[in-house]
Write a structure and sequence with these properties.
- The chain has helices at residues 2-10, 16-33, 44-64, 94-123, 139-152, 157-174, 177-198.
- The protein has 205 residues and is mainly alpha-helical.
- The protein has one domain.
- The longest helix has 30 residues, at 94-123.
């Protein structure tokens, strides 16, 4: 959250911004979260298939309907506007691209699943997490978490909302953080490959 808040000021660091973020995030995970990170996976094949399907969900509307995301429903003062996730001067920097890919594929899935599925979904049911097992279900917690997850993705809130519902249901089904990290990592891995192959920088926030 702090990094998101100070992001406009980090641009002064140039390419070092892209190296600083993953280092800071990795240190925070190691110091504060290592005891609760469980990467064991119960359904690896299903997780990979769902992750790939969600990737196609993300790019599908823009590929099938040219100009789809130009609508005021997606780009407005509340949701923001689409912009490249990497400054033009860094789009050919191999170190920056590699670092950004690793952050998207490894760090972001762990951090976001710890927050959205492992914490918020349970906290909305009961703030005393000891009383709420991983994957506990209530419609209100599932839908609120999905809505907030969608809003986090700005102009892509629609696919973010559907993705949130899919991920939330997968947590209810598997009840494992590792399964959610896997599906999220596969989606982000596919998106990162798509970004690099077709220069679709807008998919890297």
């Amino acid at each position: 959250m702090v990094l998101l808040g100070v992001a406009p000021y980090l641009t002064a660091l140039g390419e070092w911004e892209y190296l600083l973020r993953p280092v800071v995030l990795a240190v925070i995970l190691l110091v504060f979260s290592r005891q609760v990170i469980d990467l064991r996976v119960s359904r690896p094949i299903s997780g990979v298939l769902i992750g790939v399907a969600v990737f196609f969900l993300w790019i599908g509307p823009d590929v099938l309907i040219p100009g789809y995301r130009d609508s005021w429903l997606f780009q407005n003062s509340m949701m923001g506007h689409i912009k490249d996730g990497i400054a033009a001067e860094h789009q050919t920097n191999a170190l920056v691209l590699a670092t950004r890919s690793l952050r998207a594929i490894i760090l972001v899935p762990i951090i976001e699943e710890l927050f959205w599925r492992a914490w918020l979904m349970r906290w909305l049911i009961n703030p005393n997490l000891r009383l709420v097992p991983m994957g506990a279900f209530s419609w209100s917690s599932l839908l609120i978490t999905a809505a907030l997850f969608g809003s986090e993705h700005g102009p892509y809130w629609d696919v973010g909302l559907v993705t949130g519902i899919i991920y939330n249901l997968w947590m209810v089904r598997t009840k494992r953080l590792g399964d959610l990290v896997l599906v999220h990592a596969v989606t982000n891995g596919c998106l990162s490959a798509y970004v690099l192959l077709f220069q679709k920088w807008q998919y890297w926030p």
